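[PROTEIN RECORD]
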Amino acid sequence: LMGPIGSMSTQALASWGPDAGEWRHFPGFGRDGQALHDAVPPERWCISRSDLVFLKSAIHEAIIERTPRHLKPPREQDSFFDEKIGPSMHAAVKLYVKPLTKRAGNMSWALLRHPEGLECDVFITHCWDEGVFEFIDKVLNSWPMGKRGAWCCVFANPQNLDISAMITNPAMSPFAAALRSASHVMAVPTQRTSIYQRVWCVYEAYLAVENDSIVFTAVSPLDFDAMRYVPTVLCIFVAGAFSTCIFTPFLGTLGVLLMLQIVNWPSFAQVINAMGFFVSSGAFVWNLRRCWKLGSHKAFFQNDESSATITIGMFCMRIWVWVVLQLYFCASELDRLSANRARKEASQLHCGYEGVEAAKASVQSDKDRIMEDIGDKVQEVDAHIEVLISAGTSTRC
């Protein structure tokens, strides 16, 4: 961080920490960080999903609420106070993780929360340029079902200790140990740059290939404003209902024919969903009207009450079928929006990516050792990354 916010925030947070009663959220408080990391295997330096939920509110209180809005770092003019992006991971570490863990005993944030460690199910690969809220939202939204522990370098490594000694040999580093234990690897893209411009992320991709891990792209939650879609849904429903007065005998056939005309055009998925909702709405209203008329026709009941009951039951069943179809097309549209979001964010992995050999490292010797370890598998790693970028997921199986 540069400028007045760096010095101001560092001074303000140097003495910051939870109140005495709030240290209960950090069971590792007061223990020796170095001894703790020596005792707990590196693949167990993990956080849980609930830790990230807690972390988001804690960072908001520790950084956002304590930083005057006229003091913003030059590199983050537009996102520091953005509730969806937030301060960069660099800022989060400097202004929250380091001051907190220093007071607690110099362990990592993960071991501060779980001093005994957690089993590693998921490895999170990312660059440090993403906003911390952007990162948390994507990880929470994409967390694999049934998985508990996730390894992420920002929270796994002790930020106040000498980390360089841990990564002298990449193959024996905490990163490698965690990747060998994880069944899933989550790549967290950012709108600022491709994570694969960072050589450590490339190395993590290489280890994922070697371990046959399931690699997938994290996606932010769908920014769905229901009220924005209500008028459109109501208009389609009313139009479908009104159409029953004109096209009643041909409604089902007409709808099927129209959808079959465009079913092979993926770009018209939105039209298919709208047409499906239109047809099912019309059929729903038509069956509802028929059921109402039969139920109120006294003469019909007097002639054959049992037949009337069967007929009304049939129309009621049809009504529920069309209700289910209405819900299906609404869900299909939500799925389409989610898929579009996933493709867009997977493409962020390509932003500035020029191949494995073009990846950068803050320390050249790190890149030299990593490239030596990858050896002649550069093309295989490149192909793996390209599949991940284009498909959003990658696995050898």
